[in-house]
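ok, trying the design again with the full structure, not the truncated one.
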């Protein structure tokens, strides 16, 4: 029913999905090999996308570094980062998000020992919307950074954002 494709560049359709569901048109990172989009089989219109990258922990904000650094034993500080993930609401709860996790983690696990998620936590809630899925894939919640997105043009709050970021970390499974 679905086809998953490597995401190597932005298209107008993907930018519109980002604008509609993230409040922005620009992707934070598109790293070929670690980012994907999904269509219906035989169709070209995207139903969702997921981006990832490989970075160094010192590229993260100090608030995230303080949470993550104590857990990076024996690591070169090079980590995978699951960035944006969007599935159009009409196509949610059909396994697309799970498949995005599987695809990205399979590629990142070839390169790094740890993968990080910083997920949006709206005001008045205690958990990120990705909490259940992240935990099923072995991510552990390290903490929530309050008002993390302030000044970023949050789709819910604007620049006066009070949303937090739930920080999750996963160590590559040993084989």
């Amino acid at each position: 029913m679905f086809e998953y494709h490597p995401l190597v560049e932005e298209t107008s359709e993907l930018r519109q999905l980002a604008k509609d569901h993230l409040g922005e048109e620009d992707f934070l990172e598109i790293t070929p090999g670690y980012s994907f989009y999904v269509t219906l089989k035989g169709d070209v219109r995207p139903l969702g996308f997921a981006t990832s990258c490989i970075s160094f922990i010192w590229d993260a904000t100090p608030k995230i570094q303080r949470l993550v650094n104590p857990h990076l034993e024996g690591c070169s500080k090079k980590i995978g980062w699951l960035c944006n993930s969007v599935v159009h609401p009409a196509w949610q709860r059909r396994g697309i998000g799970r498949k995005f996790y599987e695809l990205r983690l399979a590629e990142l696990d070839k390169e790094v020992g740890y993968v990080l998620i910083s997920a949006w936590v709206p005001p008045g809630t205690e958990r990120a919307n990705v909490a259940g899925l992240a935990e099923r894939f072995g991510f552990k919640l390290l903490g929530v950074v309050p008002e993390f997105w302030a000044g970023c043009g949050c789709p819910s709050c604007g620049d006066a954002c009070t949303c937090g970021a739930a920080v999750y970390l996963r160590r590559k499974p040993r084989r």
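Keeping the full-length input from now on. The chain has a mean pLDDT of 81.
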